[in-house]
């Protein structure tokens, strides 16, 4: 079968180098993820194997939850154990991950400026929630929106768009998947979310018992953060539904 290719362009050589390093890091340390092969690194572009398939759907949530739990567990066991959530981390090979707190504090403040938060009190509540969730074993965040998984007819699931990786708590990227499934296809049944969390924890704890401890309250905290962080994209990228307000449990 003939292999086809896709070329992605970047603004700077530094962005190319960072994206290539992140792809290589995932290929080495997160073996559960299946990635398109990176074939050519150009001055301002990367050329990947083109994968034909469809984006994730709600019926894929169980298998994707298991995949993410396995991936996060493998990454922690292989290379993320020493990383702290509130500190940017640079690996021995030069690969760098932004921390969990800093970039999201900036993004949440921007959401207030953009009108996606009602007032300063709501911002402070979310910043407090961000600080609260910055604990436990360190995973990675790769933006698990529905378009970043390609489900093929023959080969299973590929993970794409791995340019920007950051540190994140266990379960945070699962919450991003759940939010984007909701935004794309509509509300998900609560039992489906509970089952996905259980599946995620079971997959993660096969690597270490402490990795499979994300509970529903913590997942809901992540969902609240993602609902605000994704707010500017409503009506774009296939997001046809709006996450229900209030953003925070118990808020007005």
Automatic annotation (TrEMBL):
Residues 4-202 form the Aminoglycoside phosphotransferase domain. It holds the Pfam family APH. It comes from the Bacteria. InterPro entries: Aminoglycoside_PTrfase (IPR002575), Kinase-like_dom_sf (IPR011009). This is Phosphotransferase. It comes from Streptomyces katrae.
């Amino acid at each position: 079968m003939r292999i086809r290719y896709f070329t992605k362009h970047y603004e700077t050589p530094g962005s190319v180098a960072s994206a290539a390093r992140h792809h290589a890091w995932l290929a080495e340390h997160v073996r559960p993820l299946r990635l398109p092969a990176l074939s050519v690194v150009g001055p301002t572009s990367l050329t990947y194997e083109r994968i034909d398939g469809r984006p994730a759907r709600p019926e894929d949530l169980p298998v994707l939850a298991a995949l993410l739990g396995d991936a996060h567990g493998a990454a922690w066991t292989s290379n993320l154990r020493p990383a702290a959530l509130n500190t940017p981390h640079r690996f021995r090979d030069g690969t760098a991950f932004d921390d969990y707190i800093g970039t999201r504090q900036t993004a949440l403040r921007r959401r207030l400026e953009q009108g996606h938060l009602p007032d300063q009190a709501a911002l402070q509540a979310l910043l407090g929630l961000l600080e609260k969730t910055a604990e436990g074993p360190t995973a990675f965040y790769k933006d698990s929106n529905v378009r970043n998984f390609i489900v093929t007819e023959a080969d299973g699931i590929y993970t794409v768009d791995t340019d920007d990786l950051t540190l994140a708590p266990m379960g945070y990227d699962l919450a991003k998947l759940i939010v984007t499934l909701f935004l794309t296809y509509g509300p998900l049944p609560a039992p489906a979310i509970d089952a996905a969390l259980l599946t995620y924890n079971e997959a993660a704890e096969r690597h270490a018992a402490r990795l499979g401890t994300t509970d529903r309250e913590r997942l809901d905290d992540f969902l609240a953060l993602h609902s605000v962080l994704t707010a500017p994209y409503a009506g774009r990228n296939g997001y046809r539904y709006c996450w229900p307000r209030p953003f925070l449990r118990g808020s007005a």
